[in-house]
Amino acid sequence: MASGLEHKRNNAIAAQVESYARAGIPVYIISKILKIDESVIKKNYTAELLKAEPDMIEQVANVAFMKAIEGNEKMIQLILSKKGAKYGWIEKQVIDNVNSIEELEALKQKLAKLEKENEKDY
Fold first, then answer.
1. Is the pLDDT assigned to residue 101 strictly greater than 80?
2. What's the total number of domains in the chain?
3. In terms of CB atoms within 10 Å, which of 27, 47, 58, 108 comes out highest?
4. Nearest residue to 29 via CA among 39, 19, 38, 16
């Protein structure tokens, strides 16, 4: 692999580094793919490495948001479960098995209490 003294930064390699990093490929693998020493990549393409992950997260979040807006129930549920709590969205857990009516009533009372405790005025 090339040493730091022999390498000159160029835009084509910068684009490749950013693309690979955005895809989640670790630097040591990028190094092997490009046949450039890992330390050289870290030194010469730091900006691309730092920019790649937030860009990827933003792109994926935008796709998830658009899918939710289009009515994709899984995306709606995912977004609300991750970001909706501070706006009053509370995911309720469904309990399938109870052994007695008394146990079911106790669970219903507990659920009502939790809902009341977490109720917000909007």
1. yes
2. 1
3. 27
4. 38
- Whole-model pTM: value is 0.55
Question: In the structure encoding, which two tokens stand for residue 93, read together?
Answer: 């857990």
CA–CA dist 48, 56 (Å, integer) = 12
Determine the 3-state secondary structure of 79 from DSSP: helix
Q: Are 64 and 79 in contact (CB under 8 A)?
A: yes
102 in any annotated domain: yes
**Rounded Cα gap, residues 66 and 60, in angstroms:** 10
72-99: average pLDDT: 78
Q: Using an 8 Å Cβ cutoff, are 31 and 1 in contact? A: yes
Q: Hey, what's the torsion of the CAs at 104, 109, 115, 121, to 10 degrees? A: 150
Neighbours of 75 (CB within 10 A): 17
Q: Is 69 among the domain residues?
A: no
Give a yes or no: residue 105 inside a domain.
Answer: yes
Looking at residue 88, its pLDDT comes to 75
pLDDT tens digits, one per residue of 30-78: 999 999 999 999 999 999 999 998 999 999 999 999 999 999 988 988 8
